[in-house]
């Protein structure tokens, strides 16, 4: 496994992490033994970052992780990142929500506590929840603060609320099709020594090469309404997937591995956190590290990607 160090996190973080949204009704992976086997494989293969959230299965993902780490007796080998949603950002609710995360994860301290999204439907003051999180660092219940799905302007406002600590990471959607993060978030993370966690790094499976146009009407999970899986967009994505397949054949790599390698090469601040519903999927994901595309191959993928015509107006 490769590792990255960040200015604001005084330890090595695996270049690829394990996302665990899959452990929820949303993705239908509710078998604890499978989750445990994936986590065990992650640790055995040197992946030390596990990302979860309170909303994944309304705590199910956190419960699975906590139980697995206890059963495997490997808590000290894992950097746990979780999140509390924007709806829980009333100051007193921050403490209550973090207490529940600690309980489900069966840990005394959470390594990275992230705000999952801003309080879009409430009027919770930014400094109220940020100072509550800072107090939780002082009280020894969390180690670092991160922000997920925040615009850069609000990241700045949130950081200005803190007095003794700082935001160490930002998490955004980022894959070789959906590249808006390159406009503001990646430069901001690079400039400020932050880790950028890339969620949906395989575009919910659209970049894996496992699906065709005939498959997209059959999904009964959240992909049934995801814009990338609408016919007009998926035809565009297929152009890129065909290139990923072609390049991957040179290295005996899958489209997923090429797509993740491209992200890793793009910026040293990026840490993709793909999910996995099986040990086989996890092993495929970590096959994206330990090698590199050539510069010309990176450029070819970049050119094709930039010329895709993706629309989010699907109705």
Structural notes for this entry:
The protein has 315 residues and is an alpha/beta fold. The protein has a single domain, classed as NADP-dependent oxidoreductase domain (TIM Barrel), CATH 3.20.20.100. It contains 10 helices and 10 strands. Helix 1 (32-44) packs across helix 2 (60-72). It is globular, with a radius of gyration of 19 Å.
Whole-number tally of structural domains: 1
Record field, number of beta strands: 10
**Strand adjacency order, main sheet:** 3-4-5-6-7-8-9-10
Number of helices: 10
Topology summary:
Elements (H helix, E strand, L loop, with lengths): L2 E4 L2 E6 L3 E2 L12 H13 L4 E3 L8 H13 L6 E6 L6 H15 L4 E6 L10 H13 L3 E7 L3 H9 L6 E7 L11 H8 L2 E5 L31 H21 L3 H12 L3 E3 L6 H8 L8 H12 L9
Parallel strand pairs: 3-4, 4-5, 5-6, 6-7, 7-8, 8-9, 9-10
Antiparallel strand pairs: 1-2
Helix pairs in contact: 1-2, 2-3, 3-4, 7-8, 7-10
Name a few traits of the molecule.
315 residues, alpha/beta, TIM Barrel, two-stranded antiparallel ribbon, 10 helices, 10 strands, 16% strand, globular
In summary, what is this structure?
The protein has 315 residues and is α/β, with parallel strands linked by helices.
């Amino acid at each position: 496994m490769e590792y990255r160090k960040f200015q604001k996190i005084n330890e090595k973080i695996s270049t690829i992490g394990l996302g665990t949204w899959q452990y929820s009704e949303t993705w239908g992976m509710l078998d604890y033994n499978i989750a445990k086997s994936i986590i065990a494989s992650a640790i055995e293969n040197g992946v030390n970052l596990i990302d979860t959230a309170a909303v994944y299965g309304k705590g199910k993902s956190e419960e699975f992780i906590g139980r697995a780490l206890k059963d495997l007796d490997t808590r000290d080998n894992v950097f746990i990142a979780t999140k509390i949603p924007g709806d829980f950002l009333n100051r007193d609710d921050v403490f209550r929500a973090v207490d529940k995360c600690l309980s489900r994860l069966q840990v005394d301290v959470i390594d990275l506590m992230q705000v999952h999204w801003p309080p879009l439907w409430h009027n919770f003051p930014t400094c109220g929840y940020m100072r509550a999180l800072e107090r939780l660092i002082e009280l020894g219940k969390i180690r670092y603060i991160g922000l997920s799905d925040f615009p850069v302007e609000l990241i700045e406002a949130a950081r200005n609320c803190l007095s003794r600590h700082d935001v160490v990471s930002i998490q955004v959607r980022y894959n070789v099709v959906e590249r808006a993060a390159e406009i503001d978030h990646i430069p901001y993370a690079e400039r400020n020594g932050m880790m950028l966690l890339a969620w949906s790094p395989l575009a919910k499976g659209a970049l894996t090469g496992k699906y065709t146009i005939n498959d997209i009407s059959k999904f009964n999970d959240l992909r049934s309404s995801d814009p990338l899986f609408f016919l007009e967009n998926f035809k565009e994505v297929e152009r890129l997937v065909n290139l990923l397949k072609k390049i991957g054949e040179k290295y005996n790599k899958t489209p997923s591995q090429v797509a993740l390698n491209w992200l890793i090469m793009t910026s040293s601040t990026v840490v993709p956190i793909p999910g996995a519903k099986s040990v086989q999927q996890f092993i495929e994901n970590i096959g994206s590290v330990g090698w590199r595309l050539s510069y010309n191959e990176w450029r070819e993928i970049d050119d094709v990607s930039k010329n895709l015509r993706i629309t989010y107006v699907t109705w």
